[in-house]
Automatic annotation (TrEMBL):
Pfam families: DUF7920 (PF25536). This is DUF7920 domain-containing protein. InterPro entries: DUF7920 (IPR057680). Residues 1-175 form the DUF7920 domain.
Length: 215
C-alpha cells in the first residue's frame, strides 16, 4: 500500500473500507490511519520538519504498529500507536551498517514527538553485563522484550533482533496453541512443556557474534 506522507483523504479512500472484512485485510489501512493520527498529534510544524529530515537524508523510519484486537498480550494503553525503533538509509552500503546508530535515531525521532524505544548502554557479549541484561529482559512482565542492535568491529550495526521476555513468549505460545491450533488436554500440555523447556535456551542463544545494545 502506497500513500503520501501526510495521508490525504483521497489516498485513504483508495485503501478501501475495513468494515466487514477480515482483520488481516484491514491491517494495512489501520496502520495508515494510525500514522495519519500520529502526524496530526505532533507539535505544530513537527510533521513538516520530520518529512524534511527523512527525505533530505534518504531515511526510512521503522516502527512496530500496536493495534487493538490484534492479540497483543502487553498493555500498551487504550490507543493504537506506532513504536519507532530504527532509521535506515535507502542507499546504505554494507559498510554503513543496517541502520543509523540507535542512539542518534532515537534522539532524532523523539525530537519530533514520536514514540520511540528507550536505548540502554551497550554491553560486551559473553560478559557478566550481557548475561545480566538477558536475564533482566527475560524476567520482564507486561513487555514483549527488547530490540537488540549488534555492533561490528567498525562500530556500525550489523545485526538487529528481538530478545523476548519469557512471560510474553509463553503467553503467546499458549494463546497460539489454543486459539490457532485448537489444542487441549495432553496435546496442549505437551506443546507448552516443550516451549517452556526451550524458552531459556532460545533467549540465551539469541545474542549474535557482535556487541549488543538493548532498547
Amino acid at each position: 500500500m502506497l500513500v503520501r506522507f501526510s495521508v490525504p483523504e483521497e489516498d485513504l479512500a483508495l485503501c478501501g473500507d475495513d468494515a466487514g472484512g477480515s482483520w488481516r485485510a484491514a491491517v494495512p489501512r489501520r496502520v495508515v490511519c494510525v500514522w495519519r493520527d500520529t502526524l496530526r498529534a505532533l507539535p505544530a510544524g513537527s510533521g513538516v520538519a520530520l518529512h524534511d529530515y527523512l527525505s533530505t537524508r534518504g531515511y526510512t523510519a521503522c516502527f512496530a504498529a500496536i493495534l487493538r484486537d490484534s492479540g497483543h498480550l502487553v498493555d500498551s494503553g487504550p490507543r493504537e500507536t506506532l513504536k519507532f525503533y530504527a532509521l535506515t538509509h535507502r542507499e546504505a552500503a554494507s559498510a554503513a551498517g543496517l541502520c543509523v546508530d540507535p542512539a542518534i535515531s532515537v534522539e532524532a525521532l523523539r525530537s519530533f514527538g514520536l514514540n520511540a524505544v528507550a536505548p540502554q548502554l551497550s554491553v560486551e557479549l559473553a560478559s557478566g553485563e550481557c548475561a545480566a541484561l538477558q536475564e533482566d529482559v527475560a524476567r520482564r512482565c507486561n513487555s514483549k522484550g527488547a530490540v537488540m542492535y549488534g555492533y561490528g568491529g567498525a562500530g556500525v550495526v550489523v545485526r538487529m533482533w528481538r530478545l523476548r521476555s519469557h512471560a510474553f513468549a509463553m503467553e503467546r505460545a499458549v494463546q497460539e496453541a489454543i486459539v490457532t491450533h485448537r489444542l487441549s488436554g495432553a496435546a496442549l500440555r505437551s506443546r507448552v512443556a516443550r516451549r517452556l523447556a526451550g524458552c531459556r535456551g532460545r533467549c540465551a542463544g539469541a545474542v549474535g557474534d557482535v556487541g549488543g545494545d538493548a532498547s
